[in-house]
Structure formats: C-alpha cells, structure tokens
Amino acid sequence: MTRKPSAIQRFTKKNFHTICDELARLDTDLAMIIETHRYPPMWTRPNTFETLVHIILEQQVSLASALAALNKLRGRLQPITPEAFLALTDDELKACYFSRQKTVYARGLAQALVAGELDLEALASLSDNEVRSRLIALKGIGNWTIDVYLMFVLQRSDIFPIGDLAAVNALRRVKNLSRDVSREHIQEVAAGWRPYRTVATMLLWHLYLSSPMRVNGLSS
Questions:
Q1: Inter-residue contact 42 to 202 (CB < 8 Å)
Q2: What is the DSSP string of 50-109?
Q3: Which residues touch 25 (CB under 8 Å, ≥6 apart)?
Q4: Band of residue 2 on the pLDDT scale cut at 50, 70, 90
Q5: Is there a contact between 93 and 76 (Cβ–Cβ < 8 Å)?
Q6: pLDDT tens-digit map of 64-107
Q7: Which pick of 87, 96, 126, 168 has the fewest CB atoms within 10 Å?
Q8: Domains within the chain, CATH numbers bracketed
Q9: Nearest-angstrom CA–CA distance, 83 and 75
C-alpha cells in the first residue's frame, strides 16, 4: 500500500472486494475476519437530509433505537425534507422519539439547508477536510457524525472513526489490546491501513456485528 493518496479517494462496488483483499494481504488479523465471516457489506447511504438526520439519531444510542425513531419520522413525513421537518412541533418530534437535544441538532441542520448555508450535493466535490470544516460548524455535528457521513455517504476510503465504540472495541479485540490502550496507539494501529482505513473499519464493524462481542450499535 504505497500508492500516494489523492485529495479525494473513494471506494466503489467495483473495487471494494479488491481493497478488502489488499488489506488482508497487509494484515493477517483483517484476513482472519474475512476468512471467518466473509466480506463485509459495503455500507452506503444516499446524500440526503434524511440520511444526516439518521446519523444524528445514531449518536450515543443503538442502531435499533435510531432506526425506530427514523421510522416514526418516516411515518409522519414522506419524504423527509428540511422544510417539512421544520414544520413539526416539539411534541410531534418527541412522539418520534427525538430527544430535546437531537431536535435542536436536526432543526439546525434543516435551517442551514433551507437558508442555503449548506449544500449537500456540493460537499461531494470537496476534500475530506473541507467537508469536515463545513459540517463541524453546525450544532450537534461532531467528528463521529462527520466520519460516518464521509464513510457511508461520500464513500471516502481513508477514514478511521476514533470516536466509534464498536470499531475501537473490535480493533482492540483483533489486536489483543487492553481496554486502557490510548487513543494515540489505536490511531497508530489504524494508520497502518492507510489509504483504506474506511474499508478496514467496515471489516471491524463486520466482526463486531457477526460475533458475540456485539452489545449495542456502531455509534458512540
């Protein structure tokens, strides 16, 4: 893996398994995941307001809880647009399992989109760092949310979400690291998977979801 990374690197359906195989050649622990559980799904999501609301809902809760809230919202709004979302009251959003905090975050996102302060389509042509700087300015949009957006939506190939509990726990497991290992050391291990840290993370998630270590969801 000596190829020089470009400003924007993506994985696709055509190269996903090839990247998995390259990671397996580089790292026997990742190879073990493929041998035991086969290739991971290539998780992707559309570049929409609904998707970003979904990621916000996944903050600090299980995937099942977040999906339940999203499905409640889908039952009330179809399609889920920023304008329609802003028309909902606090009580209507509470009935969709939105906490007060996540109501504020999702409304802020909707307002930014309606006001033209944020253009999701335009983000696709920006570098990872530029995308991060645009999104981090919004209340409630932190690095974990941006990492998931870059990975699942924009399909950027070299992201490791250090704030993701499932990925970190799976990495600790495959590398036989103690629970008190530093974030810096975890990042050093993940750096060995450049420029394909996203796909390596998907292998870790695949292990997490396929084995008894599964507890809650992917987010933290």
A1: yes
A2: HHHHHHHHHTTS-HHHHHHHHHHHHHH-SS--HHHHHTS-HHHHHHTT--HHHHHHHHHH
A3: 31
A4: very low
A5: no
A6: 999 999 999 999 999 999 999 999 999 999 999 999 999 999 99
A7: 87
A8: 16-42+158-210 (1.10.1670.40), 49-153 (1.10.340.30)
A9: 16
